[in-house]
Design goal:
Blueprint: E1 5-11, E2 24-30, E3 39-47, H1 51-55, E4 76-83, E5 93-96, E6 103-106, E7 112-113, H2 130-143, E8 150-154, H3 161-170, E9 174-179, H4 182-191, E10 196-199, H5 205-212, E11 217-221, H6 227-232, E12 236-244, H7 255-258, H8 264-273, E13 277-280, H9 290-303, E14 311-315, H10 320-328, E15 335-339
Helix pairs in contact: 2-3, 2-9
InterPro entries: ADH-like_C (IPR013149), ADH_N_2 (IPR041694), ER (IPR020843), GroES-like_sf (IPR011032), MDR_fam (IPR045010), NAD(P)-bd_dom_sf (IPR036291)
Organism: Pseudomonas edaphica
Keywords: Oxidoreductase
């Protein structure tokens, strides 16, 4: 590999609707030189996550959009290749937010040291990273499952949903997953141990979901929205809690689609009539729980075989745009990660 050249993927255009590979551009540039107080990172793994679709849009959101011509954002596992920072040393493996590129600079404030002897570094992008913590924080702080509750989560084979259901069971609740396709449903039921799983592609999906939730739904962890919400909403019990984590069914909506389905009146009616708690959140709201609670508990659950995970790893930065588009369409199976320097 040429260590004098940086490869990066930038946002070339803002998509209207489904992104295409032409919305991204592969560029080459010189490897940057760290100044005093900086380190040079060599990214080893890149996390691909649904929130990145929002960052491609100029619409107002919880974070600034990626600028046209700027490197796409994303969490990475990196090795410090060169250090001019007293707290960081060459060879350290770190969690960073260095984006879709091979090399990046950091002042050290956004880094977290990783110990590869404790867990494989890729887990810092998934089950022990932002997706796992999102599941933990949203479910326990907002969903608040109790023993005997029925907890339903869509995208149940994914990085967030898979953790939601397993933690729900650890809290004594029933876990009902929603996934797409026989293989994913079998994984959720047989490997992750959910009490039930429903294929949202089934023509009688709503009827199957109702049968799996004979006592209604007490907690619905929202990752998807759209038609899945239509099937969930009538089953919600009084005082049900709904952490809203994602709306992946709508991330690719263009201007026309936004006007087609108005679910708001029926949703607002049920919020009032059933005294529902609907609470959107971003995992950074609960960051004070990450080090002392989440990482310790989750690592222990993994060691005891109580928290399982699956990773979907693809090779090569150039494959990231197509893999990301596939993520938004549910083509991945597990936490989607790009290995930047396949051997």
């Amino acid at each position: 590999m040429n260590h004098t050249e940086n490869t990066r993927i930038v946002l070339a255009a803002r998509p209207d609707g489904r992104p295409t590979t032409s919305d991204f551009r592969l560029e080459h540039s010189p490897v940057p030189e760290p100044a005093d107080g900086e380190v040079l990172l060599e990214n080893l793994y890149l996390s691909l996550d649904p929130y990145m679709r929002w960052r491609m849009s100029a619409a107002k959101s919880y974070a600034e959009p990626v600028g046209i011509g700027e490197v796409m954002v994303g969490g990475t596992v990196a090795r410090i290749k060169q250090s001019r920072h007293s707290d960081w040393h060459e060879g350290d493996t770190v969690l960073a937010y260095a984006g879709w590129q091979r090399f990046a600079l950091s002042n050290g404030q956004d880094l977290r040291r990783l110990d590869p002897s404790i867990a494989h570094p890729t887990t810092a992008l998934g089950v022990l990273g932002m997706p796992g913590f999102t599941a933990y924080a949203g479910l326990l702080n907002i969903g608040k499952p109790k023993p005997g509750d029925t907890v339903v989560v869509a995208a149940a084979s994914g990085a967030v949903g898979s953790v939601v259901g397993q933690i729900a069971r650890l809290q004594g609740a029933r876990a009902v997953g929603i996934a797409g396709g026989a293989d994913k449903c079998a994984f959720v039921k047989d490997e992750l141990g959910f009490d039930a799983v429903i294929d949202h592609r089934a023509p009688d999906f709503a009827e199957q979901l109702a049968k799996a939730c004979p006592d209604g739904i007490d907690v619905y962890f929202e990752n998807v929205a759209g038609p899945v919400w239509d099937a969930v909403r009538p089953l919600l019990n009084n005082f049900a809690r709904i952490p809203v984590c994602g709306l992946i069914a709508h991330y690719n909506d263009g201007a026309i689609q936004h006007a087609q389905a108005d679910r708001l009146p029926a949703t607002m009616h049920d919020i009032l009539a059933k005294s529902l708690t609907v609470r959107g959140f971003i995992q950074t709201e609960f960051v004070d729980q990450q080090q002392d609670r989440f990482l310790q508990e989750a690592a222990q659950w993994i060691a005891e075989g109580k928290l399982k995970f699956r990773e979907d790893i693809i090779d090569g930065l150039a494959q990231a745009p197509e893999a990301f588009i596939g993520l938004l369409e549910g083509r991945n199976f597990g936490k989607l990660i790009v290995r930047l320097n396949p051997q």
